Amino acid sequence: MIKTALFSNVDTQQLNICGELIRSGELVAFPTETVYGLGANALDSMAVEKIFKVKNRPADNPLIAHISDPSMLSGLVKDFPKELEELTDRFWPGALTLVLPRTEKVPDIVSAGLPTVAVRCPSHPIANGLIRAAGVPIVAPSANLSGRPSPTTFDHCVEDLFGKIAAIIDGGKSEIGVESTVLLPLGGRRLKLLRPGGITIEMLESQGFQVEMDPAILSPVKEGQKVSSPGMLHRHYAPKAPMTIVAGKAEAVVRAIQAKEEEGVWVLAFEEYLPLFKNALSFGSEKDSKSQANALFDALRKFDSLPCKAIFAMEPSQEGEGLAVYNRLLRAASFQIIPAERL
Ligand code: TXA
Ligand code: MG
């Protein structure tokens, strides 16, 4: 156990204390607009190593470097194609991560040995203030133990990391609730979507970019298959009880799940359908993907504190922000998805 300082209502002085902790090689969990991050000095490989130890994160899963201003890019990436400036002008600060060829300043451990580094400029004032106070880029995976749902509240971070890191900063509930959109630029105006998030395919296309989806977003990676984003390989976001997504029209899905209800069975349901089940948690409204993104991880965590043997989830839409929700839910369910009529 180490002593974990807990900060709430942070002011400049406290941000400076946390910035100093980062500079001296310690880990600080902090809020961002997507999910909470577990931060370390991106240029200090010993500090970065602590992240992998504390989270029990597989060493082949690279980290995102967070910057407070696009001017910090030059130290991290080799060159920054002109077209991409249109993306960063439009979506930074915000929930967009770009994977680019890295400079030799970026330690190997950050990139898990890949020739690229992922970079994001978060919009949350505490995240931004912390990076400025530290004066260095901050690598930050989601501040959960590996495999658990990402943290969207201070309490989630305390649950996973208290006694393991130097400080945790409270910033209230995460605004978006799912992690950033990760893009691999393919040259010109072509982008490969490695992980869907708050910045949607439609938003990128409306800026005149062509987006191709990595196959690993919607289907499991086969053994030995090469992946563009190692994070896709690992079991993720999963509650302890096995989860099954039930696909189809809501009425059919409700009926199929009702037929399976017994002790220990819980349902992840849209709020409109909650009263129809004996044991259910809400993950937002059926027609509102934003509200689903916002509620998903908290609900997945809550199942672990319930006497729950099996979980059935209603199928979310894949439109817009829905794709990010669908992608996380698929992983939480280990890709177990069954049509209502075959449940
Ligand atoms: O919203 C977010 O992105 C949050 C907050 C804290 O900023 N961070 C986050 O980090 O979600 P993490 O480590 O949980 O997810 C990083 C993802 C992983 O899927 C990883 O494989 C991918 O980004 N990634 C990182 N560096 C990469 C690289 N060089 N090439 C391809 N994928 C990379
Ligand atoms: Mg994560």
Please specify the SSE layout and strand pairing.
Elements: E1 5-7, H1 12-23, E2 28-30, E3 37-41, H2 45-55, E4 64-66, H3 82-91, E5 96-101, H4 108-111, E6 116-120, H5 125-134, E7 138-139, H6 154-161, E8 167-169, E9 181-187, E10 190-195, H7 201-205, E11 210-213, E12 243-247, H8 250-258, E13 265-269, E14 280-282, H9 289-303, E15 310-314, H10 322-332, E16 337-339
Parallel strand pairs: 1-8, 2-8, 4-6, 5-9, 10-11, 12-15, 12-16, 13-14, 13-15
Antiparallel strand pairs: 2-3, 3-7, 4-7, 5-6, 9-10
Bound molecules: threonylcarbamoyladenylate and magnesium ion.
Features:
Rossmann fold, 16 strands, globular, 10 helices, binds magnesium ion, DHBP synthase, five-stranded parallel sheet, 343 residues, binds threonylcarbamoyladenylate, single chain, alpha/beta
Notes on the structure:
This protein has helices at 12-23, 45-55, 82-91, 108-111, 125-134, 154-161, 201-205, 250-258, 289-303, 322-332, and strands at 5-7, 28-30, 37-41, 64-66, 96-101, 116-120, 138-139, 167-169, 181-187, 190-195, 210-213, 243-247, 265-269, 280-282, 310-314, 337-339. With 343 residues, the chain is an alpha/beta fold. The chain has two domains: 5-217, DHBP synthase, CATH 3.90.870; 243-342, 3-Layer(aba) Sandwich (Rossmann fold). It has an eleven-stranded mixed sheet with strand order 1-8-2-3-7-4-6-5-9-10-11, sandwiched between helices. A five-stranded parallel sheet has the order 14-13-15-12-16. The protein is globular. The relative contact order is 0.15. The mean pLDDT is 95. Bound molecules: threonylcarbamoyladenylate and magnesium ion. Magnesium ion binds next to loops. Magnesium ion (MG) binds next to loops.
